[in-house]
Design brief:
4-stranded mixed beta sheet, alpha+beta, 4 helices, globular, Glutaredoxin
Length: 91
Amino acid sequence: MSETTIINDAANAGTEFLVYTGNFCGYCTAAKRLLERKNLSFTELNFDAGQAERSDIVAATGHRTVPVILDLRQEQPMFIGGFDQLQAYLS
């Protein structure tokens, strides 16, 4: 079920990246700004706003903190990690 959730979210995103976020998250803001600076489109789904189920995403990725970032530019969504991993990935 959890991987299916990510695949469905990715299919509905229509963007290059999918970013799961939480409220009051400095790293989430930094990740979104980095993607914007690189002119990369992204869809944000906020756990605290009920736009995604955190337990499903943790089960699928093993990543327990926000943001949870996926690259959607390939055939299958690719889990990147959080902000630090995104920064290295886009360097």
